[in-house]
Amino acid sequence: MSKLQELLHPSHIVPLIVASAFFMENLDGSVINTALPQMALSMGVSAVDMSIGITSYLITLAAFIPLSGWFADRFGAQRVFGCAVAIFTLASIGCALSETVQAFTLARILQGMAGAMMVPVGRLIVLRITPKDQLVKVVALITWPGLMAPIVGPPLGGFITTYFSWHYIFYLNVPLGLIGLWLIKKFITNQSEDSKRPLDFVGFVLIGLGLATFVMAVESLGNEGLSEHCGGLFLACATLGVLAWWHTQRHPTPLLNFSVLRVPTFGTIFFYGSLTRVCIGATPFLAPLMFQVAFGYNAFASGLLLLSAMLGNLGLKPFTPKLLRRFGFRSIMLGNGCLAACSAFAIGLLSPTSPVAIIVMVMLVYGITRSMQFTCIQTMAFADIPPEQMSGANTLFSTMAQLTQGVGVALGATLIHASVYLRQGDIHHPQSNDFELAFFGVSGLIFISLLGYRALGLDAGASVSKHEKFHIHTTPK
């Protein structure tokens, strides 16, 4: 009972509200994958045609995330967060009522616009009200629902679609959204900046188009492998990126302010932490495919195997602050990163004859290391950010975090393509050896990403982690 009382402490209410919104957004994006065949059947199209619903959502999300910080500063974080939850809920009803692919795509675009505001602004609210010495605990609190949703989503989506109807996947968001709106109104106060900076419209167009093109490019890379179409998209993305960078360096109030990268800890996490997230994030895409395509498990059984990773996510959360206090960010991120790389390598060693108990154990270790590394990355990124730069840092971090999800899937698909190509096989029928090579590649890239963490000082983030050896020296007088 004491644990429950601690969880429901007034200081945890706002983070729990934000965590619930994170869970709703991430769950919605993951449950749909298992429902696509039934949705296609009811709309009279092929399952491949339904993929536009996923792609349109991801493109809209990427394009509008850079606007989140400006909206929060201009109109107030609580107001923007509440509107985003309301629009996401209404769009979910639109998805459930859709009878054609076109109507469903429009509803998903509306969901993407709302999701682009909901997650970054929710995190910004938490970062603004949380003292530095409580940041580890609070970030862990808002992180694990987002980590849990992609794992719970596939089996939940399969269960609802099999025994009820795919429409209920989207109706689930209605009670969650209504409760969330009431809680936001009751517990979150509106915050906005005194200075009303003008909207960098040119920057929004360049950055939005660049990010949308990038998402389409990685989607193409994952589906088709290297091709002229894919190369053209990456070239367009690079051109837009250069123009956007040139523009932001000359605009007095750019939409994305890259000056925050000069903060050493944020810069290190932004680059190397993103690479780690890409590699670790490839596993939720690769593992279910391997279990079904190569091992012969059905979708529901595959989802159940992934639940062991969720148990790892949940099981480590209470110990995260204590471990960081004892060892500090640098040691934990290096040591746990090595374990994450080893767990990816171990998944690659699994075979169709591997006992279920062994598979569960390996996925459990993967879940533990994934949870710890993601919590460290999301906490360390903001450990040294001054309050006046928090909004810009959060927008930049949220933009990169969204991109890493798509790149993680593309990385996994590309590694599969490469393995099939090397053995001159059929890409439509990947074998166990192809997944083995893919996981070995992911493992190696995780090890490479850890090299950047060596630049962190032993006392990095000590004011946040309360590292026993350095906290006394970093506490403000």
Would you mind describing this structure in some detail?
77% of the residues lie in helices and 0% in strands. It is an all-alpha fold and 477 residues long. The protein is globular. The protein has three domains: 12-195, MFS general substrate transporter like domains (Growth Hormone, Chain: A, Up-down Bundle), CATH 1.20.1250; 200-254; 257-477, Growth Hormone, Chain: A (Up-down Bundle). It is built from 20 helices and no strands.
What pattern of helices and strands is seen along the backbone? HHHHHHHHHHHHHHHHHHHH
Say how many strands there are.
Answer: 0
What is the averaged pLDDT score? 82
Total of helices? 20
- CATH topology term of the largest domain: Growth Hormone, Chain: A
Uncertain spans: 1-5, 473-477
CATH architecture heading of the largest domain: Up-down Bundle
Rg, rounded, reads 22 Å
Under CATH, the homologous superfamily of the largest domain reads MFS general substrate transporter like domains
Sum up the overall morphology in one term.
globular
First-last Cα distance: 37 Å
Helix content: over 70%
